[in-house]
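Narrative of activities, Objective 1.

The group set out to show that a structural description can be obtained from nothing but a protein's sequence at a throughput compatible with the screening campaign. Below is one input-output pair from the validation batch, recorded exactly as produced.
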Amino acid sequence: MLYGVFSDIHSNLEALNAVLDAFESAKVEGYICAGDLVGYGPEPNAVLERIRELKNCQVICGNHDLAVIGRLDVEWFNAYARSAALWTRNVLTSDSRAYLESLTAKLDAKDFTLAHGTPRKPAEEYLMTAHTFRENISRVHVWPLIVGHSHMPHCFRINVEGQVEDIDLLDHQVVEMGRAAYGTMPIVFNPGSVGQPRDHDPRASCALFDSGKGTWRSLRLSYDIAAVQAKMRSNGLPEYLALRLAYGQ
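Output recorded for this entry:
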């Protein structure tokens, strides 16, 4: 099955629309969303409505989603993230809140394992080092593991020598999942962030995962950043959060 994979939308409707348009053009058969649907950006309800409309979409929540519905203490966030989370909490509709409350931060599916951060600490821990990858291997029953949270398109995988390969994923880069006698070699993919990339590339980041062929293709997509910034400013969200969109930080 060909999946469109995305994460960390953060209430950025323009970026989400660009990603979903690309998925439609690619004729994806299903969707995988690794959490943090809201937070930071100006249109949480519209973003949630679009995601709820998707067919065959497997979605989990992230730490910002949990903070917005009061299941994670916003005091763990920096001042900018905390301000945006509290603003989002105030504008969220009852339907949007109910949808976020229905999500878990980890999902074991037939073709993949999905966690916002890591399988060990689904909502909080970042999977950004080979050491953390190795520590979480025993907690994954179906490969690949797909995560979000870091806002960085990335891959860790075990090669045939048993070493961890650490790969920064570039636009249109394709990575093949390794096979062994016992099954798929351990591998984790991060599609990067739709709504707030942090790898110094401001374009929306996402991926196509073909579970039949065992391939992952990273994608970067341009969108109207200025329009999002204007909406953030008109809603009184922190200026820093608006400015960083233009720099991919």
